C-alpha cells in the first residue's frame, strides 16, 4: 500500500517527497541531532531537513525497516554525516548506547528528537492484551524518557528536545487506545520536562501531526480505508512527511527560541481542544 498515495491526483496533495525545494538556510549549522525512528516516515523527513539545515544526524531505528541506508545517503548528499544505529529503543540499555555512540562519533549532542513509535489496530479494549499494552508504552513513551534521561546531561544552553505526539492525544482513537494514551502522556511529559529544563536554557516541545502517509499506516488497510485516510481533515488529505518535518526544524532552530512546553499541530486544520 505504500505506493498508493491517497489523493495524489489533487493539486493539494503533492507526490511523496522527503525534501523541500529550497537549499536550506544553515539554521542548524554545526549541530548534532539524535532522531529515534529516523529511518522512515516522519523521522526520515526530519533527518533530511536537519541535514539540509547543516546538522549531522544519528538515527536510531528498528532494523525491520530497510530504509536507513537510503536516509543516510540523502543526508550525505548535503555533506553531512549520518550515524546509523540499529537498536530497540524499548530497552533502557540501548538508549544509553545510542547516546554513547553519538558522543563518540560527534563529540556533542544539541538536539534530541524522540519519534519512534508502534501502533497496532484493535477492535476494542477487551482485545488488547496486557503484553501489547506494555509494549506500546515501552516503545512510545518509556523510550522517550530513557533517551531524555541519558541525553540531558550533555545538553547545554540553547539545545532542544522535540517529541512526536499525535492528534490522537486530543481526539482519542477507539481502535488505537494504547497508542493514543501514550501520545497523551508525551504531551504531559513535554510540558513537565520543559519546566524543569528551562533554567538551563534547554527547550522542550512536541509536534502533534494529523494523518501522514507513512509506513506506520498499517499495511492491513484495505482499499476503502486507504481511500478514506486523511479525508476527514479540512484540507481533505493526509500530509506528506516533509510537511510535518518543517515544524521540527522551526522548533529546534533559533527561530523557535521562545517556544518551550508547546505543541505544534500540523494536522490539516482539525479543530482540537488543547
Ligand atoms: P514509521 O513507521 O515510518 O516510523 C516509525 C519509526 O519507529 C520507524 O522508523 C522504526 O524504525 C521506529 N521504531 C519502531 N519501533 C522501534 C523500536 N522498538 N526501536 C527503535 N525504533 C523503533 O511511522 P511514522 O508515521 O513516520 O511515525 C513517526 C512518528 O509520528 C511516531 O511517533 C508516530 O506516532 C507519529 N505520528 C504519525 C502519524 C501518521 O499518520 N503517520 C500521525 C501522528 C503521529
Portion of residues in beta strands equals: 5-15%
Unreliable spans are 1-15
- What is the makeup of the main sheet? 7 strands, parallel
Give the helices and strands as they follow along the chain. Answer: EHEHEHEHEHHEHHE
> What are the distinct ligands in this entry?
nicotinamide-adenine-dinucleotide
Summing up helix and strand content along with how strands pair, one would put the structural category as alpha/beta
Helix content: 25-40%
The pLDDT mean sits at: 91
Task: Write out the strand line-up for the largest beta sheet, numbering strands in chain order.
Answer: 3-2-1-4-5-6-7
Compute the separation of the termini in Å.
33 Å
- Tell me, briefly, the overall form: globular
What is the count of DSSP helices, taking H or I runs of 4+ residues? Answer: 8
What value does the Rg take, in angstroms?
18 Å
Strands, count:
7
Organism: Ohtaekwangia koreensis
Family: Belongs to the short-chain dehydrogenases/reductases (SDR) family.
Keywords: Oxidoreductase
Protein name: NAD(P)-dependent dehydrogenase, short-chain alcohol dehydrogenase family
Would you mind describing this structure in some detail?
This protein starts with 31 loop residues before the first strand and ends in a 10-residue tail after the last strand. The N terminus is likely disordered. Helix content is 37%, strand content 12%. Helix 1 runs parallel beside helix 2, helix 1 packs across helix 8 and helix 4 runs parallel beside helix 6. The protein is of the alpha/beta class and 274 residues long. Bound molecules: nicotinamide-adenine-dinucleotide. Nicotinamide-adenine-dinucleotide (NAD) binds next to helix 1 and strand 2.
Amino acid at each position: 500500500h505504500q505506493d498508493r498515495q491517497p489523493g495524489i491526483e489533487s493539486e493539494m496533495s503533492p507526490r511523496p517527497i522527503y525534501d523541500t525545494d529550497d537549499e536550506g538556510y544553515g539554521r542548524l549549522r554545526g549541530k548534532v541531532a539524535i532522531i529515534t525512528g529516523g529511518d522512515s516516515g516522519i523521522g526520515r523527513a526530519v533527518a533530511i531537513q536537519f541535514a539540509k539545515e547543516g546538522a549531522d544526524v544519528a538515527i536510531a531505528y528498528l532494523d525491520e525497516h530497510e530504509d536507513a541506508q537510503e536516509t543516510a545517503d540523502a543526508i550525505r548528499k548535503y555533506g553531512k554525516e549520518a550515524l546509523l544505529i540499529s537498536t530497540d529503543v524499548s530497552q533502557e540499555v540501548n538508549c544509553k548506547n545510542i547516546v554513547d555512540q553519538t558522543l563518540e562519533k560527534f563529540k556533542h549532542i544539541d538536539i534530541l528528537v524522540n519519534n519512534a513509535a508502534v501502533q497496532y489496530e484493535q477492535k476494542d479494549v477487551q482485545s488488547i492484551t496486557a503484553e501489547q499494552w506494555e509494549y506500546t508504552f515501552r516503545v512510545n513513551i518509556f523510550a522517550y524518557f530513557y533517551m531524555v534521561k541519558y541525553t540531558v546531561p550533555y545538553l547545554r544552553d540553547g539545545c532542544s528536545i522535540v517529541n512526536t505526539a499525535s492528534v490522537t492525544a486530543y481526539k482519542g482513537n477507539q481502535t488505537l487506545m494504547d497508542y493514543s494514551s501514550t501520545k497523551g502522556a508525551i504531551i504531559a511529559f513535554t510540558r513537565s520536562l520543559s519546566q524543569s529544563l528551562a533554567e538551563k536554557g534547554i527547550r522542550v516541545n512536541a509536534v502533534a501531526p494529523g494523518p501522514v502517509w507513512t509506513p506506520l499506516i498499517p499495511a492491513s488497510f484495505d482499499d476503502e480505508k486507504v481511500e478514506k485516510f486523511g479525508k476527514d481533515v479540512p484540507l481533505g488529505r493526509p500530509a506528506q512527511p516533509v510537511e510535518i518535518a518543517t515544524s521540527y526544524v522551526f522548533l529546534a532552530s533559533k527561530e523557535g527560541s521562545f517556544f518551550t512546553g508547546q505543541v505544534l499541530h500540523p494536522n490539516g486544520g482539525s479543530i482540537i481542544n488543547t
